[in-house]
Amino acid sequence: MESIAEVVAKHASMVGSAPTMMEEVLRWDEGVSLVSSAEKAATYEIPGGRLVATYTLASQGQLSYYVDLNYQSAEGLAETEKAIDVTVLAEILEATQREVDCQVCYNIMLDPVTTPCGHTLCRKCLARTLDHSLHCPVCRRGLALPPSLSSQPSNATIVELLNGLCPDAIAARVEAVAQEERPGEGEMDVPLFICTLGFPHQPTFLRIFEPRYKLMLRRCIEGNREFGILMYNRYYEPQSDLGPVHFYHYGTMLRILHCQILPDGTSLVETRGMYRFRVRAHGVLDGYAVANVERIEDVTLAEEERMEALEIARPAVEEGDVSGQIDRMPTATLLALGREFISRMRGRSAPWLQQRVLDIHGQPPDDAALFAYWFASVLPISDEEKYKLMGTTTVRERLKITASWIRRIESQRW
């Protein structure tokens, strides 16, 4: 209001402005008593155009809330008054928009939220600053706000003001923000969490506390609730066409089932694996990795049966050739080998098969297509060994890998 008053004062003080003639018109409603028809309506003459004249009249306390005004233009002055009003309105909009710029992004506020210390910022801007610090970005006071701002209401007064003063600017801002959040078509449209392994059809529990991944998580929840998880490549081993990158290029697409945000902004996330993928190209968006990925599919059942028949038909191998013996086992035998091993380990009260583990991952599956992923999720061996499952394209191949783990454990070579 102070900014508007300055604009009005400047135009009201201009010498030579023709006076604007105004006449009061009472609105006859339940809140206004009838006025005698003999009483003459009040008239005013104030220089500066309709906007300035009306503001001046209201600021002097002479314009009742329930009163409308009729404006009369002197002959030949209608266009002049209109030009003055257009100029004044443009200056008012410019002055007021400066007052509603966000102090983080320096754009006009979008979905403004006011902090307990009295500073108003864009909702997305405030959420992103809370990813880094639980302090007001303007005055540095501590903010007792949920980091996601999920329960924090928008400032309805400022929202209404902005929608009334500059609807076109707000619409342009909405489109600009949507464009920033929108991934390129067919390009880097999959966010990546580079941390550990996940497996299809298995739960993965994550604790997210880095600011870049808080942002990624928030965007995933607002979008399709999916992101890829990859194992960290600590030695920068070359990954196919990608070369030496900081992640292994086979990963699992996860779907967010539940997310709990703690008071310090840390998120506890429950996800479930959907399918495996391979990274074809990668980049960075606001600090976290994004990629173009290719889904990894198994061969057809007919092709798998053909491969199984060829391997079983191979000549017998020497007694000490464990790998050769596993290759000649039927797929059903490989599954039985794994399930029998689990039964023996449960009989020995193996700590990795305690009830709390089974409550999370379920009982050993009868489905050969699921067993290897379940087994890798509960077996306490290195992620580098488990990663061997990620690039496979047959159920049999995965069961042969799990059988090799079992033989090595039984021979105490681990």
UniProtKB/TrEMBL annotation:
<protein>
    <recommendedName>
        <fullName>RING-type domain-containing protein</fullName>
    </recommendedName>
</protein>
<keyword id="KW-0479">Metal-binding</keyword>
<dbReference type="InterPro" id="IPR017907">
    <property type="entry name" value="Znf_RING_CS"/>
</dbReference>
<dbReference type="InterPro" id="IPR013083">
    <property type="entry name" value="Znf_RING/FYVE/PHD"/>
</dbReference>
<dbReference type="InterPro" id="IPR015947">
    <property type="entry name" value="PUA-like_sf"/>
</dbReference>
<dbReference type="InterPro" id="IPR003111">
    <property type="entry name" value="Lon_prtase_N"/>
</dbReference>
<dbReference type="InterPro" id="IPR046336">
    <property type="entry name" value="Lon_prtase_N_sf"/>
</dbReference>
<feature type="domain" description="Lon N-terminal">
    <location>
        <begin position="187"/>
        <end position="410"/>
    </location>
</feature>
<keyword id="KW-0863">Zinc-finger</keyword>
<feature type="domain" description="RING-type">
    <location>
        <begin position="102"/>
        <end position="140"/>
    </location>
</feature>
<dbReference type="InterPro" id="IPR001841">
    <property type="entry name" value="Znf_RING"/>
</dbReference>
<dbReference type="Pfam" id="PF13923">
    <property type="entry name" value="zf-C3HC4_2"/>
</dbReference>
<keyword id="KW-0862">Zinc</keyword>
<dbReference type="GO" id="GO:0008270">
    <property type="term" value="F:zinc ion binding"/>
</dbReference>
<dbReference type="GO" id="GO:0061630">
    <property type="term" value="F:ubiquitin protein ligase activity"/>
</dbReference>
<dbReference type="Pfam" id="PF02190">
    <property type="entry name" value="LON_substr_bdg"/>
</dbReference>
